[in-house]
C-alpha cells in the first residue's frame, strides 16, 4: 500500500483519533453508568479505561499535527520525540489504573474473606452494556488498524490506539463471559465466589494486561533515552547507505540508529579522506537522507565529518585524565 503524502496522512490520522475520542467518551459514560447501576467494579474499571482513552486520543491528535514541524528555536531537534513521550506516559497512566484496580480488587476479596459482604450485583444492565461496548471496541480497532495500514504502518499513536481498543474489547468480552458464568451458576458451583466474582475477574484481567503495558512503557522510555534501535534497523540503514558511501569514496567510521516514535535518526560518522566543501557535504547528506528513507520511513541523517567513531579514543578523550 502506497504511503500517502504528509498532509493526507495527518488528515487520516486526525480523523481516526476523533473517532477514538468520541468512541471512548461514549464507552466511559456507559461504563460508569452501568457500573453504578449494576454495582460491578469490573464494569466501572472498564469505563475508567475508556476515560483515559478519550484523554489520550485528544492529546494524540494534537501531537500528530506537529510531528513534521521540523527544528525551530524552541525544539532544535524537531518534534518527533513527542510521539515517544505520548506513548510512554499513556502506558504509565494505564499501568497506574491497572495497579489501582488490582489493589481495589484485592481489598474487596480480603474484606469478603473476613466476613464483609459486598453489595449484590445487578445483572440486568450488564447484558446491554457488554453488547454495545463490545461492538464499539471492534469498530474502533478496525478503524484504527485500517488507518494505521493506510498511513504506512509507522504511527506509534495509531498502533497504540488500535491495541488499546482491541484489549478493551477483550476485557469487555472476558468480563461479560465471567459475569455471565457467575450469574448462571450463582446458586451452584460458583456460589462461594459469586459475591466477589467481578473482583476476581478484574484481578485476573489486570494481571494478564500488566505485562503488555510494562513493555510499552519501557519501550517508550528507551526511545526517550535515545537507546539504539534494533539491530534490524541498523542493518537496514547500513545497506541503504552503502552505495552512497562507496560512490563518494570516503570511509564510514561508525553509524548509529535511534528511534523516537515513528522517526529514525541515523548518525553517520564519516571521513571523506580528502578536502571537501560544505556544499559537497550538504549534497552528500541529502542523498543519504533520500537513501535512508527507502529503508526506514521518516528517517533523518546526521552526517558528522570526523576521523573517529562515536567515542573519542582514550588518548585524546577530554573525559579521560591524559598526560
From TrEMBL:
Signal sequence bounds: none
Topology of the protein relative to the lipid bilayer: Multi-pass membrane protein
Cation efflux protein transmembrane domain mapped to chain residues: 17-218
Main location per the UniProt record: membrane
Residues annotated as transmembrane: 17-37, 43-63, 84-106, 126-143, 164-185, 191-214
Keywords associated with the record: Membrane, Transmembrane, Transmembrane helix
Localization: Membrane
InterPro entries reported for this sequence: Cation_efflux_TM, Cation_efflux_TMD_sf
Keyword Transmembrane helix: yes
Presence of the UniProt keyword Transmembrane helix in the record: yes
Protein name from the UniProt record: Cation transporter
Amino acid at each position: 500500500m502506497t504511503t500517502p503524502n504528509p498532509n493526507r496522512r495527518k488528515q487520516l490520522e486526525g480523523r481516526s483519533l476523533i473517532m477514538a475520542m468520541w468512541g471512548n467518551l461514549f464507552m466511559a459514560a456507559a461504563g460508569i453508568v452501568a457500573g453504578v447501576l449494576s454495582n460491578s467494579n469490573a464494569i466501572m474499571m472498564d469505563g475508567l479505561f475508556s476515560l483515559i482513552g478519550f484523554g489520550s486520543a485528544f492529546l494524540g491528535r494534537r501531537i500528530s499535527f506537529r510531528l513534521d514541524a521540523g527544528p525551530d528555536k524552541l525544539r532544535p531537534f524537531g518534534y518527533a520525540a513527542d510521539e515517544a513521550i505520548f506513548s510512554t506516559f499513556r502506558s504509565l497512566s494505564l499501568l497506574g489504573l491497572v495497579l489501582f484496580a488490582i489493589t481495589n480488587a484485592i481489598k474487596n476479596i480480603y474484606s469478603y474473606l473476613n466476613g464483609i459482604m459486598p453489595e449484590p450485583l445487578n445483572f440486568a444492565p450488564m447484558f446491554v452494556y457488554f453488547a454495545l461496548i463490545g461492538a464499539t471496541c471492534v469498530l474502533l480497532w478496525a478503524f484504527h488498524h485500517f488507518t494505521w495500514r493506510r498511513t504506512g504502518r509507522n504511527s506509534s499513536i495509531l498502533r497504540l490506539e488500535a491495541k488499546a481498543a482491541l484489549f478493551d474489547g477483550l476485557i469487555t468480552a472476558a468480563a461479560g463471559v465471567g459475569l455471565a458464568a457467575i450469574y448462571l451458576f450463582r446458586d451452584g458451583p460458583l456460589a462461594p465466589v459469586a459475591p466477589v466474582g467481578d473482583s476476581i475477574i478484574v484481578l485476573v484481567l489486570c494481571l494478564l494486561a500488566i505485562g503488555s503495558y510494562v513493555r510499552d512503557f519501557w519501550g517508550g522510555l528507551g526511545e526517550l533515552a535515545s537507546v539504539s534501535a534494533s539491530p534490524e534497523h541498523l542493518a537496514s540503514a547500513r545497506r541503504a547507505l552503502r552505495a552512497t558511501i562507496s560512490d563518494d569514496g570516503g570511509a564510514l567510521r561508525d553509524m548509529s540508529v535511534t528511534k523516537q516514535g515513528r522517526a529514525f535518526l541515523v548518525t553517520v560518522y564519516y571521513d571523506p579522506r580528502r578536502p571537501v566543501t560544505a556544499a559537497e557535504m550538504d549534497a552528500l547528506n541529502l542523498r543519504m537522507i533520500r537513501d535512508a528513507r527507502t529503508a526506514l520511513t521518516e528517517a533523518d541523517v546526521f552526517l558528522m565529518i570526523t576521523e573517529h567513531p562515536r567515542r573519542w579514543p582514550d588518548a585524546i578523550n577530554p573525559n579521560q585524565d591524559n598526560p
